[in-house]
Design a protein that fits this description.
Radius of gyration: 16 Å
Strand order of the largest sheet: 3-2-5
Shape: elongated
Distance between the termini: 18 Å
Structural class: mainly beta
Largest sheet: 3 strands, antiparallel
Number of strands: 5
Mean pLDDT: 93
Order of helices and strands: EEEEE
Number of helices: 0
Length: 78
Amino acid sequence: MTFTNTGTTAARSGTVGFATHVIGALGVDWATVTTTQPLPAPIAGGSSKTQTYTVCVEAWRVPLGMHVETRNVSASWN
């Protein structure tokens, strides 16, 4: 993911949130697992940083025939 600070001062800290959905074989959304990770801070004003994240879901939450999709991502910084 690439985070861009469009402001003029540095973003010194923050978090990125992920909403990972457990999807059944017929497309039914059975559960949503939310996780947060730190932003790749600091991000200077007017610049960007790229960070790769791994989102994990416990195996018992995803029975045979189901899969996971991360559908929502949000960021909050200071």
